[in-house]
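Query structure, 670 tokens:
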């Protein structure tokens, strides 16, 4: 290509197979390059369009550079990415083409497309503007002050957040002998801060300024005078809260992308900042509006924002309520909202409706990404429901039709022979809870639900859920999986749902334990529900203890109360029932927490046999099962190199103990 021939090879990034001499990376590896900049990025779309990768690639282009898209023939839409949405029992040809068709329309209308002849190698010199300089001065004053404070810096990508933090730290170090910790999702994600703070992008792990893993910051108390966290929205809110609490005398600076291709920062904005405002430490909010690596109103940024709906917002407040209303008022709606199952063909061609709907999801959820828009438009197992007021979306819900699996497939999943995409509830009820019959039920799962921020606490969410229940008369089981908070658990309970499972680990997006809540309809769904509730009553105390051992913070008292109420009275298990459960765990995919009480009882009653096992097995089972110690300490006590290695060793150690007492296990015993 003539464009690429003008550039040094190290200024060109090729996504996929590149010609000799050029830097290439697979689509899945683009994320690791975030923070770098290239004069030209080439993205091949012959195999399909990944919404997330497109956004990432645009963010890697230096101002004045080029994003080159290698498009397939106009008469052949790419199918590879579509096939990834073909969850059982759907076939690739049943996946929609709406996202691709909309992208092509956006491409045809954009002013970002320029002829190759107009290209000149970009000037890669970055000069901070007055806005960034002002933010740097404010950060320096706050981070070098004698008293603790919390500073937040929120801006879209490319606005110079990382460089502002680095420049501020350089000045702070010049005047204060502070102990400074820089943290992020990974060391690579903090390179830009160190580049501007020290001149070397490689994060040091020693000295007055060092990189510290986020969870290490929760293990020490007041060890640092200054803590800076970049892309804080990528970390769970409870982890950020714990870091803040563990360092009450520190000056903190948390930066986050408000919206972008890696996901929105709404969890950070809506939940962490609301908590921080009550924490007591002075809270200062900063922002950057002007980009520093490209010009304001850059056509490529504008095109990507539109094509991926990164700038989608809820409908304007003044178009929803009477003119006499004002934001924050609780007024009667002028008319009842109307429920509608959205026609996705029409939705993909109706920009206002699409942006209303997706804007609500972006505003309400922790990390909505461009790939969510792709699934929303094209995945054949998803339905989109909305409440409309004056033609605008005031409540939105994405639901998945799941289950109806064959008995043979359910049996495979029950034995741990694979997992199944697109059937989150049946999969977890078979693989984690251990009920093979769950997969054959007709299930409707609530994936996401959101209400317009100006119209909350008017029962709109409840009204939408009730309409969804009526819409699926053949459904045997309604359910949802979400990051557990007391408010959400109580909301679903009011609609006839009840908790049946708490996950063994905190969700990567929310930081809260995953909760599974169900609303059974058919007789066989009700029988399954009753059995699951019995399991929960038996195991919940130990599950909560394990979560607290491993969590960044203790479970909130209100959440502990919400998940513990209305549990059924325990029914005793026979010896044969206990052995059957243990055998299934040892031969199958269930996690330890699903049978925590039965397995703990077994180890506790066979400590004499445990003493005859290897020293490592003794230490592993004693630390995790009997003492319920955190995995990090278990790892040290039992001399495992990593936490995942120790976790993988738990089942074999329990099996070895069981077989030393009961004899060899065979698959047909499970």
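Result returned for the query:
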């Amino acid at each position: 290509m003539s464009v690429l021939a003008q550039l040094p090879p190290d200024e060109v990034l090729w996504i996929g197979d590149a010609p000799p001499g050029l830097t290439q990376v697979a689509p899945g590896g683009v994320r690791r390059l975030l923070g770098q900049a290239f004069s030209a990025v080439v993205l091949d779309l012959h195999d399909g369009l990944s919404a997330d990768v497109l956004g990432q690639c645009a963010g890697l282009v230096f101002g004045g550079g080029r994003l080159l898209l290698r498009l397939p023939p106009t008469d052949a839409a790419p199918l590879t990415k579509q096939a990834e949405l073909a969850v059982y029992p759907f076939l690739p040809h049943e996946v929609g083409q709406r996202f691709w068709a909309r992208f092509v329309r956006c491409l045809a209308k954009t002013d970002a497309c320029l002829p190759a002849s107009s290209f000149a190698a970009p000037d890669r010199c970055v000069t901070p503007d007055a806005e960034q300089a002002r933010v740097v001065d404010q950060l320096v004053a706050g981070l070098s002050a004698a008293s603790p404070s919390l500073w937040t810096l929120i801006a879209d990508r490319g606005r110079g957040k990382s460089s502002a933090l680095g420049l501020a730290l350089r000045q702070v170090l010049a005047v204060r002998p502070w102990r400074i910790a820089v943290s992020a999702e990974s060391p690579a994600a903090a390179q830009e801060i160190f580049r501007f703070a020290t001149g070397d992008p490689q994060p040091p792990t020693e000295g007055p300024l060092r990189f510290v893993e986020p969870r290490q910051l929760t293990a020490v108390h007041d060890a640092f005078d200054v803590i800076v966290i970049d892309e804080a929205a990528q970390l769970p809110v409870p982890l950020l809260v714990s870091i803040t609490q563990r360092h009450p005398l520190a000056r903190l600076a948390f930066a986050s992308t408000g919206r972008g291709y890696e996901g929105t920062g709404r969890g950070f904005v809506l939940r962490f900042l609301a908590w921080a405002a009550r924490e007591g430490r002075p809270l200062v909010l900063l922002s950057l509006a002007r980009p520093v690596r490209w010009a304001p109103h850059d056509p490529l940024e504008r095109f990507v924002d539109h094509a991926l709906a990164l700038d989608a917002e809820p409908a304007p407040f003044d178009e929803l309520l009477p003119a006499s209303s004002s934001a924050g008022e609780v007024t009667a709606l002028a008319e009842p909202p109307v429920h509608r199952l959205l026609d996705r063909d029409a939705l993909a061609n109706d920009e206002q409706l699409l942006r209303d709907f997706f804007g609500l999801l972006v505003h309400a959820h922790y990390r909505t990404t461009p790939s969510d828009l792709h699934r929303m438009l094209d995945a054949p197992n998803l339905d989109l429901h909305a409440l409309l007021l004056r033609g605008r979306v005031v409540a939105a819900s994405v639901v998945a039709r799941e289950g109806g699996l064959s008995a043979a497939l359910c049996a495979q999943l029950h034995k741990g022979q694979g997992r199944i995409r697109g059937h989150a509830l049946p999969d977890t009820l078979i693989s984690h809870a251990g009920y093979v019959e769950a997969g054959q039920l007709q299930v409707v799962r609530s994936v996401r639900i959101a209400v317009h921020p100006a119209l909350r606490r008017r029962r709109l969410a409840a009204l939408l859920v009730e309409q969804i229940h009526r819409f699926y008369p053949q459904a045997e089981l309604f359910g949802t999986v979400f990051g557990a908070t007391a408010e959400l658990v109580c909301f679903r309970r009011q609609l006839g749902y009840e908790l049946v499972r708490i996950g063994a680990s905190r969700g990567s997006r929310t930081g809260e334990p995953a909760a599974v809540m169900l609303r059974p309809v058919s007789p066989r769904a009700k029988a399954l529900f009753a059995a699951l509730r019995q399991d929960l009553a038996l195991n919940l105390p130990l599950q909560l203890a394990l979560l607290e051992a491993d969590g960044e913070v203790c479970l909130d008292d209100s959440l502990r109360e919400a998940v513990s109420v209305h549990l059924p009275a325990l029914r005793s298990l026979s010896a044969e029932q206990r052995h059957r459960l243990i055998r299934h765990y040892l031969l199958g995919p269930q996690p330890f927490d699903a049978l925590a009480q039965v397995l703990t009882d077994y180890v506790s009653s066979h400590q004499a046999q445990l003493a005859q096992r290897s020293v490592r097995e003794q230490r592993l089972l004693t630390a995790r099962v009997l003492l319920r110690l955190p995995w990090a300490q278990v790892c040290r006590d039992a001399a495992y190199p990593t936490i995942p290695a120790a976790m993988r060793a738990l089942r074999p150690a329990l099996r070895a103990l069981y077989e030393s007492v009961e004899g060899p296990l065979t698959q047909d015993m499970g």
